[in-house]
Amino acid sequence: MAESSIPNLHSPYLLHPSDSPSLTLVNGLLTGNNYPQWERAMTRALNAKNKLGFVDGTLQRPDPTKPEYTQWNQTKDMVLTWILNSISPSLATSLEYHTDLRDVWVDLFSRFFHGNNVRIYQLKRTLSSLQQTTNSVHDYYNRMKQIWDELGHLQQSIDLKALQQQADDEKVFQFLLGLNDSFASLRTQILAMDPLPPIGKVFSILFQEEQQRLLNIRPSETIALAVRPGGCLKSSFKCMACGKEGHTRDRCWSIVGYPPGRNPRSINQLSILGNGSLSITPDPDQDQKQQASDQNLPNNKVGRVLHNQSVLAWPASFSTSFTVRILKDVNSSSYGDGMAFIMAENDKPSPPESYGSFLGILDQSTQGGQLHQLAVELDTYKNENDPDANHIAIDTTSVLHPVAQKSLNCAGIDLKSGREITFRLDYEGWNKVLHIYVAYAGEPLVNFLNHRFIMKKTVPSSVYVGFTASTGTYAEAHHLLSWNFTTYELPMKSLKYGEENKIRNIMLKAVVPVIGGLFLFAAFGLPFVLRARKRRNDRVWKKEDIEMLTRNAANAPRMFTHRQLSKATHSFNKGNLLGTGGFGSVYKGVISDPPTTVAVKRISATSKQGEKEYLAEICTIGRLRHKNLLQLQGWCHESVNLLLVYDYMPNGSLDRFIGKDELLDWKTRYKILTGLASALVYLHEECGNPVVHRDVKPNNVMLDSEYNAHLGDFGLARLLENEASVTTMIAGTPGYLAPEVSFTGRATPESDVYSFGMVVLELVCGRRSKGFMEEDSLVDAVWGLYEKGAVLDCVDKKLEGNFNGEQVKRTLLVGLACLHPDYTFRPRMRKVVQVFLNPDEPLMKLPESRPSAISLSFHSSSASTTTTDFASSSAPLTRGSMESLPDAILE
Questions:
Q1: PROSITE patterns this protein is in (predicted)?
Q2: How far is the C-alpha of 399 from the C-alpha of 408, rounded, in Å?
């Protein structure tokens, strides 16, 4: 055989007989995000086949006149086909007009490769948080080794200069790893730079961005972004005053002067800390570092920060929640003096001598009513009239003599612990009561202090809200980490009754001085008469409004007389008592026209909250019709008698069958859960204006004679539309409340989904939950078994294995998905129903282990709702027009 006919086995043009156009060289198609891994695998595969030169540019294209050109062209097309086989169809389509293999390779590189920095950052962040958890030591080591090896590949160093660059990059990565998520956008831009800028440049970029946020926006926006870890960032530095890039607004102001109304001194006591929080008084640690140039220690200092727009104080209700942290001076063992939430009559700075025990609220010259404001102290120093050095106090005209105070030791909270503490203040405009809730951040809020006062007599109708803080003999830092404030106007009463009362009052004021003989009666008896008449007018007015609303509604509940219902229940005989709740009792009765067995709920005459829930129930459930909702048949509103009439449920409520001797088979349990899910789909999506139930639990699931589920007790329900806030008060039952409701006080369809998930676990497992975040809770137990692959071990032992294993497993996984602490990962109820009805419906994806708790905050606004949100992340909530439940009814 001639020597020239022997093929060169080392030639890149050589194709093996097994090489075909359908060959795929790597596992996993290129989709874009996986480009680094795909590129490494494809490079290895092409190198193994001696074809890497076609894509890396080392193999030159031969002269078309040479004999080897044909073989080169054939092999090039074959390699191009292999690459196209290894990428997603959509990507392949976008590359089909490329004929040069090198062009394809470069195109993919330019699209998806943005340097190794982002990937290195991701790997280091994963490595810093990696823990063994439920993995074996072998699996844990393999996972870490995989990350180490990839880091080693990405950080290859071949000389001293490269080693120095790698060390500098390591400093940048460490700095970026510790940044708050509020800088996520800017962090991504820095990581996209190749090579990475030096650490000094990175610091300069981020420091300027921090200052930009403080100076580039109005005062209210400054607070919002300063304490909002998830706040939006700008991609470049652009002066908001002149619109030009290249400088910050403070520099522009130094040239053209400060805009009207902008006083640079208004923020000189504030500082933005590296963790995204706002320091109201100077940080002792920072001040100590400046002693060489500034001998003013952080003692006897005052700080105040207010929202730049006034908000409505009355007639209104408000809710505000905030998280703070108080730290002492590292050089001292003592604290002082504290901080306060304030509703001020103006936006002026704190009085000049208001440091120390005055907390920046008042000073000696303004004590005793000079200023009209409300303040809630968080006091860390014991003065003469204080219970201790760890208390809450409510101040109006005097700091020395608060209207209410209570030691936080009663709640197990220590203001001086250095921990993050969350407070929520709810003022009920109807009842004139301020409720104060408190807890360490991440734990459910508990009611700590309630105080009744009239806002109208305390502050002007419009106030400025914010915080004050002070130090005295000792220094401490006051950090505001998040803040949310919501106020909504309460509608005035019916004009008809308002005008009548106004005319009546005018006549009385004119006649009483003339009729001397009635002076004693006017002085002592008239107020009681007027109060009784006012209550009677209110009852008549509310009754007429309910009649009007229900008269126009289809299938509206009928109005009963008290006499009819008294007769039906044998004068509410104890023998007919079915149960007692928080706001009244339920009796079994038989109405005669037509003869029907009913359940009659009697609202306590002394319960104001019960009255509001009574009205809410009529106007919410009264218009709803669904086979799995407990139907409201009628109502009665006579004098102090508030009564609701429902369908009678022979088998009572579902809680009777959980953890009790009475047994429900699996088929019945599954039917109950399916019916309950269908009811929630109807409320959330199908009934017109969506309704959030807010109290889904076994006690509120009633069972008819065939054990069909009927969701009832709509006293806490709220209508939703598209534009505003639903509620600002926490309502519901601990253990069934979604985590975000415990922290923010707002209910959503997703919080109903969470409650449903708890009902699922209780019914399948046959035991009640201990409550949210309790050790050895039902949720912990089910998650633990799921992680071990033994989730069926949690099923109620009383079933004795008589159930469809696959169906039970799917049901438990649905329950766990509904209980995800992050509401954005919970399924919609429609998806739940689809899973229950169709065994082939794909399940929701669950993490391998129980996800960590996540605290979210919400904000919204509308024409009648003012909301200022300074929290970490937000999701819109809506508030219905309540056209079937006027706000005035709830007075």
A1: LECTIN_LEGUME_BETA (PS00307), PROTEIN_KINASE_ATP (PS00107), PROTEIN_KINASE_DOM (PS50011), PROTEIN_KINASE_ST (PS00108), ZF_CCHC (PS50158)
A2: 18
SS3 of residue 486 by DSSP: strand
Rounded Cα distance, 740 and 730, in Å: 11
Q: Contact, 61 vs 53, CB < 8 A?
A: no
Is residue 188 exposed (0-12), middle (13-18) or buried (19+ Cβ within 10 Å)?
middle
Q: State how far the Cα of 779 lies from the Cα of 770, in Å rounded to an integer.
A: 9
**pLDDT at site 795:** 95
Question: Does 179 reside within a domain?
Answer: no
CA torsion 514-518-519-523 (nearest 10°) is: -120
* Surface-to-core class of residue 852, CB atoms within 10 Å of its CB (0-12 exposed, 13-18 middle, 19+ buried): exposed
pLDDT, position 798: 92
pLDDT of residue 769: 79
For the annotated catalytic residues, the residue numbers are 695
Last residue of a domain, one of 509, 535, 561: 535
Query: Quick one: pLDDT band at residue 82, thresholds 50, 70, 90?
Result: confident
Q: How far apart are CA 177 and CA 216, in angstroms?
A: 26
For residue 126, tell me if it sits in a domain.
Answer: no
Name the token pair of 95.
Answer: 């590359």
Q: Which ranges in 270-323 belong to alpha helices (H)?
A: 284-289
The residue count of the chain comes to 891
Condensed to tens digits (0 to 9), the pLDDT of residues 161-213 reads 565 666 677 777 777 776 777 777 677 667 767 677 887 777 777 776 776 56
542 labelled ligand-binding: no
Outline where 603-730 has alpha helix (H): 608-621, 666-681
The total number of structural domains in the chain stands at 6
Domain extent, residue 85, equals 3-112
As a whole number, mean pLDDT of residues 212-224 equals 41
pLDDT of residue 34: 78
Instruction: Specify if 41 maps to a domain.
Output: yes
What pTM value is reported for the model? 0.42
Euclidean distance between CA atoms 603 and 35, whole angstroms: 66
Residue 352 forms part of a structural domain:
yes
